[in-house]
Amino acid sequence: AEGGAGEIDAPGGSPSEVEAECTLVQRTSILTLDGALATGLARVGAEVKVIAPATGSVSRGIALPIVTSRKITCADYGRVIGHRGGIELDLGTSRIELRRFRITTADGGTEVFTGPRTSAGVPAFTADLDAAIEPNLDNIITLRRVPLTVTAAGARALNDALGTELFGPGMPFGLLDIR
Q1: How big is the CA angle at 123 (ends 117 and 125), to the nearest 5 degrees?
Q2: With contact defined as beta carbons under 8 Å apart, do 101 and 173 qualify?
Q3: Which of 19, 84, 91, 104 has the fewest CB atoms within 10 Å of its CB?
């Protein structure tokens, strides 16, 4: 269609019909545990181990490879950013594996899901993307210092698996950087 004065035709439909996509350039997310949590885990004798193909350490950060499409919707950061590997928390003879970190903005909230490969897992953490994501002029985004906080379901799962009361809803778990 021809545009009148002051109008611009957008290929593929009107601007409201075309949904811009942003690109995540990075291929890895770095998880850094909250300092107070790391201290609390050490105080009760818990160990934190890296599950391959993730690499790194608690002191340097745990690198989780991104396995899903790097294209996400710019308007609401929709879609899922999936990861491989994870972390294992051991306390005495008890352990829990936090795997398959998936960040999604479904229903306006961002959650990190965890669980064994055979189950859907629980929404263990929330991640506040609002202050952390900013696309540049080329629609390339980065995530820096995304705070992860423990959900009520996550606290129950972590405490039940480890036989502790260390985790509570809303407590900081760590920071996530996609770099």
Answers
A1: 115
A2: no
A3: 19
Query: Can you tell me the distance from the alpha carbon of 152 to that of 88, in angstroms, rounded to the nearest whole number?
Result: 19
Which pLDDT band, with edges at 50, 70 and 90, does 118 fall under?
Answer: very low
Element (H, E) at 83: none
Query: Are 151 and 111 contacting, i.e. CB atoms less than 8 angstroms apart?
Result: yes
The residue to which tokens 């009520």 are assigned: 152
Taking the mean position of all CA atoms in its chain, how far away is CA 122? 13
Q: What are phi and psi of 166, to 5 degrees?
A: -70, -30
Which residues are registered as beta bridge partners of 123?
113
Three-state secondary structure call for residue 155: helix
Q: Are 56 and 30 a contacting pair, CB within 8 Å? A: yes
State how far Cα 137 lies from the chain centre.
24
Give ∠ CA 94-98-102 in degrees, rounded to 5: 165
Name the token pair of 63: 């690198």
- Give the integer Cα–Cα distance in Å for 116 and 6: 56
- In this prediction, residue 97 carries a pLDDT of 87
**Under a CB-based contact definition with an 8 Å cutoff, are residues 63 and 104 in contact?**
no
Half-sphere exposure in the Cβ direction for 70 (13 Å, CA): 16
